[in-house]
Amino acid sequence: MLEFQQSEDFMEKYLDIIGQCRLFSDIEPSNLKALLHCLAATRQEYPKNDFVFSAGDAVRHVGVVLSGRVHVLQEDYWGNRTILAHITPVGPFGEAFSCADAEKLPVSVMAAEKSEVLLIDYRRIITTCSAACGFHMALIQNMMKLLAQKNILLTQKMEIITRRTTRERLLAYLSTQAIQAGQSRFAIPFDRQQLADYLSVERSAMSAELSRMQADGLIRTERSVFELLS
Fold first, then answer.
1. pLDDT tens by residue, 152-186
2. Do both 125 and 167 map to the same domain?
3. What CATH number did the domain enclosing 168 receive?
4. CB-count burial class (<10 Å; 0-12, 13-18, 19+) for 128
5. Which residues, in sequence order, are CB contacts of 46 under 8 Å at separation 6+?
6. 208 and 131 in one domain?
């Protein structure tokens, strides 16, 4: 991890990006800079495969991806990995655990590529400042909306991974991606191993099933690009 201290240059460079995060919805740019100071926000840079948070760490921060991508991961006792979420720029992460007042993180967050992350002291989010500023109250309301939205996404993922067969899981996942893209041809944010981790299936079995699905005329795929066929 490469660490950077907060500065005026940092604020000016990233203010527009940070303002696009749903955590800061309805907060005027003129108030956002003051709010970031209030939250003791700092920028960190992480090389690919470096951990932003590690399972077992004390819960101290909520993160926002400024550039790159991060994966929220869970590993079992034997080291088998499941990708719980894929976070892209302006996406927040870690808010559920901070609001739950968890002592230790049950998951890890890893940089899927070189990434910049805004880290915010979660205690400063849930506790209003001495000035009791109105935009801080908007921040807390946004946090509640994010938690509700994350719960919906988790429900959607559960609907996918509770399918009985690998083919059913693949079709359910690819269907959601096509609907989000608004077209039958789209790119997914995972390589093959990451897709297997996300769907909680074995990679070789999944690759074999993808080949059978192509032979059956259900899909066409090359690397991370898929096309659903009629």
1. 888 888 899 999 999 999 999 999 999 989 999 99
2. no
3. 1.10.10.10
4. middle
5. 1, 2, 52, 68, 70, 111, 114, 115, 116, 117
6. no
